[in-house]
Structure formats: structure tokens, C-alpha cells
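HTH lysR-type domain-containing protein
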Amino acid sequence: MTLVARTTRSVSLTDAGRRLLESASPAVAQVRAALTEVTAKPGEVAGRVRLTVPRSAFHFVIEPVLPKFRVSSSSAIW
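Predicted C-alpha cells:
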């Protein structure tokens, strides 16, 4: 089974390669999350940080504390 088509100028996924990537992506994400969780120190923030806030709340509430949070939570993924 060919997963990658390669020429002298490009590399691209075949249909089988695209299907494998689509099927395997959730599993790979779960493994990454599990590794992050087991390597985190107790009490340490680790993993993906996603915020959904109004723009005004971001500027007045989140933005002032974000630099300090990033330094103290270096394992967090932005």
C-alpha cells in the first residue's frame, strides 16, 4: 500500500495516506494528551488552553494576567 507519492519536486499523500491520516489523527491526539497528563507534575497546569471570551473581557481581565500565567504554566499548550 502506497501512502505517499513522491516526485523530484514534491511529496503528497495518496488517497490511502489521507484516509490513514484522518483515521489516525484522533488516536494520536489522545496519545499526546495522555503523555502530557502522565508527565505533568502534581499541581502543575498542563495541556491545551482554550479560552472563549468576549473581546472586552479579554482586554480587561485575561490580557493583564496572561504573561504571568504563561511563565508559571510553561507546560500549557497555546
